[in-house]
Amino acid sequence: MVLLLVVGQVATEADSGSQEQTTVTVPPTSPNPTEPLPFDETTVERFFTAVKSQLQCGYPMFGVPSLVPLKLSYTLKTSFDLLSLKKISVVASNITVHGLNEFSWDPSRTRFTRTAATVPLSFPNVTAFAHTSLNGANGTSFVELRNVSVRLDAQYEEKDDLLYVTELSGSILLEDAKVKIASLFPKSAKLSKIWNKAIGKSLPILVELFNGGKLKIEYLSRLLSGAKFYAMNTINNALNTHNLNFDRLVESMLKFADGTSDSLQCEESAAMNGNELVGWQRA
């Protein structure tokens, strides 16, 4: 309507014999917030390369420790029936996870809009070690996950010129797993080996059932819910602290990918030692 009024005014002035030239500027159309945005694969690859190094430093300013390796301080206590053959009480502590910085992403299945993002990641090998106690028998157990496919989904919105994450979700697929639960059957090493192999082979199926909501694991659901809350709170705290909306976030990510002087990257010397929360170049 405004454009029609402007055009009408120009036509009236022309008819009145005015010799003045009038330029009409049409403001650009606002992008559709749900329309997929183009992205440069090389730039995104540089961003993820920087992320892999950053995982060794973490983000101490936001309460995020080094994730290479990831060391979990809590103690897991649970129990289960092994096919009604044996009641097992499990205590796991000193959990350490390796391999979170070794991943690739699939550009063909990646999608960005101004309100949502989907990023698929692939981890060739993720290994978790823990000190375990099964019915009082102590030992070191480990789980090796091979070819883990993770799809991360995020939804966000802008309010008062700030960006907020409103939802985090995703799914996990597992190709193969190797399990060694120490002292599963202390009196029979052969039986322990058989059951460890069976548990490892069943893990991909169990993960798929859990993704589809067909398998309910109360403890795991609570753990994932807590991790989701922590992640959203940490991300929104960072966005708010640095006064970022969508456009300023994209600009910040480009700086991070290029390692500019005002990006939030840790020093290379600090990246070499993931156990120390020191060595920050920039605030």
UniProtKB/TrEMBL annotation:
Keyword Signal on entry = yes
Pfam families cross-referenced by the UniProt entry: JHBP
Annotated signal sequence is 1-16
Q: Which domain of life is it from?
A: Eukaryota
Region: Disordered; residue ranges are 14-38
Which InterPro entries does this chain map to? Answer: Haemolymph_juvenile_hormone-bd, To_sf
* Keywords in alphabetical order: Signal
Q: Give the protein's recorded name.
A: Lipid-binding serum glycoprotein N-terminal domain-containing protein
Q: Which organism is it from?
A: Anopheles stephensi
Specify the taxonomic lineage.
Answer: Eukaryota, Metazoa, Ecdysozoa, Arthropoda, Hexapoda
